[in-house]
Amino acid sequence: MNVATDVSLEFDDIQSGVLNARPSPYVGTYLLLRIDDRVAGRELARRLQAVVDRGRPSSDPAPDAWITVAFTYQGLKALGVPQGSLDSFAPEFRQGMAARAAELGDVGENGPVNWERPLGGPNVHVALAALSPDSTRLEAVLERARRAYQELPGVELIWRQDCYQLPTGRTSLGFKDGIGQPGVEGSGVPASNPGERPIKAGEFILGYPDETGSLLPMPTPEVLGRNGTYVVFRKLHTRVAAYRRYLRAKASSREEETLLGAKMVGRWQSGAPLALSPERDDPELGTDPNRNNDFLYHDDLRGFKCPAGAHARRANPRDALENEMSVDVRLHRMIRRGTSYGPVLPEGVLDDDGVDRGIIFVFVGAHLKRQFEFVKTQWLNDGIFIGAPAEKDPLVGPNDGSGMFTIPQRPIRRRLQSLPPFVVTRGGEYCFAPGLGGLGWLADLRT
Ligand code: HEM
Question: Which band of pLDDT confidence, cut at 50, 70 and 90, is reported for residue 326?
Fold first, then answer.
């Protein structure tokens, strides 16, 4: 269906966590709840209406603290959502992340049998994310959440994960993260890349036209689907010591170690992109939000500056695929709300200390299959699209010790061999974050 392109987003119905950038730095907590009794679950939804934040994106996220709520398919079932409505959700959501493991490359040690309980199991029903610029305000926000689920027999807290973003924005492997984000048309959220036109709102929020000019299939009834979105949540353990040892073994100097690490990501640790600063890190560029994402790849199609196989270039090839393939990158964009968990491994330490640390990867988008699953399976787990079928993402791909990574350079390319896995999936869920009206509909369910 072709529809008009003018959009007026219903900010009062859209949860804040969808469009608002997180404050930087911040602290946060993820909570997972189980609903044992549908009446109690509906009461929870009713209470959450007053707790969950909504509203126009703030130009200054610093003062903000907020709570976001999302439900798994099992959670919607536990609330007693009628079958006709359950059937209207995206098939991948209905199956759940654990059932999609083979497609996603979550096999072997990444497989659901090895996931942290209760992730991927039938008891995860409601996910709450609370975050704030500091721990005092986080406590206040969490207290609001607690009031919603505590002393509510039939609703149980089953998992808690604290997380944070460092003032540098760097995560466990040492790189500044969360830089590249799409702009969303009609939201007032500008693209972090001035060279990328804002993406149609329907790519991220259900009920609005998407990049093809159509309305994506929306869960029914309309009050439930409209202004909602899908959320992917993955706990990804990072093997920081193994990563450091690998680079040390492949490099002949500390400078080369840093360079190889940057080639694998597509950015230096400071965030400076190789596309703009190919020879050396430029921390000033890395921390400048007006410049650190202002680039395309058309002048580097062969990857001499940033390898085609680098993580960030795979995840968003920008204009690099335009000439060779009819891939419309705009159909595969995502809002990311990633965050760190676990203590940082002190600099220079090369031995594993056995402590769990990594990233809680969070995707927000209206199309699980075309956005999250496509990027994960076609671009990160597979190298066919860059003409290197044997190469997976060197940083986050499901490598098994036999993979390689090509770094184009003159006179002869460099190949890093025997890539071990640096990231292990600890578990995750596909969720649906309804608009406030949808939350109210869930609260008002009868039967
Ligand atoms: C532990 C796992 C991961 C780590 C350590 C990681 C790290 C990074 C870093 C350092 C960047 C560059 C900074 C930035 O642009 O924000 C980046 C960019 C990105 N990552 Fe990841 N990432 C991980 C997993 C994933 C996964 C699973 C996906 C998608 C399925 C993904 C999608 C993206 C996207 C879309 C970008 C932005 C690319 C751009 O616009 O240039 N990442 N990641």
Answer: low
